[in-house]
Amino acid sequence: MKVIVIGGSHAGIAASKFLKKLDPTTTVCLIEKSNVLGFIPSSINLIFKGLFSADEMEKGEVGDQETLEHLGIQLLLETTVTNIDLKKKEVFYQDNATKKITTETFDKLILAMGSDRFAPLIPESEAVHSSIITYKSRAKTIEAYQKINDSNQIAIVGAGLIGLELASSLATKSTKKITIIEQMNRPVFRYFDEEITDILLQHIPESIDLRLSESFNQCQTVKIDEREQLEVQFFSGQTKLVDACVFAVNPKPEVALVEGLVDLDFDQTILVNDFMQTSDPDVYAIGDLIKLPFGFHGEPAYLPLIGNARKTALLAASHITLADPKPIPTSQRSIGTEIFGVFLGSSGITQDEADFYGLETSSITKTYTHFSNYHPVKDFFVTFKVLYDTKTKQLFGAQLISNQKDMLDLLNVLTQMIVDQTKVDDLVFSELYYNPKLSPSTNFLADLGLESLLK
């Protein structure tokens, strides 16, 4: 069996590894157009936080050439796939340096080209384009870091995870004046309800100019005191002068290579079945190229998360190598992050999504401020929100915010309970270890279960 994997993304690397682990006799060839394997775009935040320098950008890569080759994976880096012939099962690729084109045959093909940030619709001005920042690849991230580092007035379009994590990493820089522009009436609305975002808003520094319910319109370069700046214009008619504007918006799948070869959905994601097969059963698509079944309803949703990239990679590799592979489980879109000194986690659907699907739901929101008499934590707090079906009590979603990182571990427990279609009452019997030096005095999940019994 010979499998060609196109794309050294997180999904492509994971698929290559899983193929060799599940069946070491499989011939695996991984083709990547750059010399970078599995880059993490949020590495820019780690640089601004001082975890490593811009000269050490390779620390943002999760792939290791030596490890992959040790597994017996053939790596073709700085190699661009130019064409695919599905009838003949051939891939044509070009060495970026020599321009030599080579043909390689395959039994199975895995598409893992990943995604890129949406480019804003702005006037074709070189000066404007040089001040507009999007980043996902290592090269774009290096450019973004240099531009942001040299700028004092910075606008960030989008108050989702990408925008807030960047703003959080810049907040400690006294010379940086940050404006965040968000068209919705609260930040990170895709993952959190108002009970959680209201607490988050209390932790956003006053130095951050957060403009909610405000939409980006366009931008243009202007000269102020002989200095060229970028004027960001909003649909409300207001403007903001900045040195750089970052578009922190969701990515789009990189599908140009396979347009006309496999079926695409209306949003340009590749259509796949429960085993990641495309309209051609010998071609698989994984990672940021596809949508996944999401939430209790299992409706397809675009969830470009590294965890999902690895999950879909395992599904494709399993279907290729195993006799009885398992189909895709429903994703719960689990995320965890640190923003402005607080830790947030979310899994399952939000109240807005429950309302959209016409579900009759109830919820419990509770804040705890005492950790333990034996192990006191200064100013400790954690707020949970659990969402469940009013009649059946089935858990649909969970959210939390805390000033303690360890609280995020409880989200993993809640996620598994959502996956298992557990009732909220069963939280009463959630089994967590207890150690007086390490554990909180209260089993927070059990207490939430008790709250549900009292409703």
From TrEMBL:
| A GO molecular function held by the record | oxidoreductase activity
**Pfam families (alphabetical):** Pyr_redox_2
Q: Which UniProt keywords apply?
A: FAD, Flavoprotein, Oxidoreductase, Redox-active center
Q: Which Gene3D superfamilies match?
A: 3.30.390.30, FAD/NAD(P)-binding domain
Name the coenzymes or cofactors required.
FAD
Residue ranges occupied by any FAD/NAD(P)-binding domain in the UniProt entry: 1-290
Does this UniProt record's set of keywords contain Flavoprotein? yes
Q: Does the keyword Oxidoreductase apply?
A: yes
| Protein name per its UniProtKB record | FAD/NAD(P)-binding domain-containing protein
Q: Which organism is it from?
A: Enterococcus thailandicus
